[in-house]
Amino acid sequence: MWTLRYSITEASDNQNCGFSHIFFPVNAPRISPASNASARRGSPTWLKCNAIYPVILTTPTTFWLFNNTRLAKESQHYQSKEDGPRLGPNSTKLLSLQLHISNVSAKDVGWYTCGVDFKIDVATADVYFSLKDETPGGKIVHKEKCSSCRYPFFSAPTDIKGVIII
Question: What superfamily would CATH give domain 28-132?
Answer without folding.
Answer: Immunoglobulins (2.60.40.10)
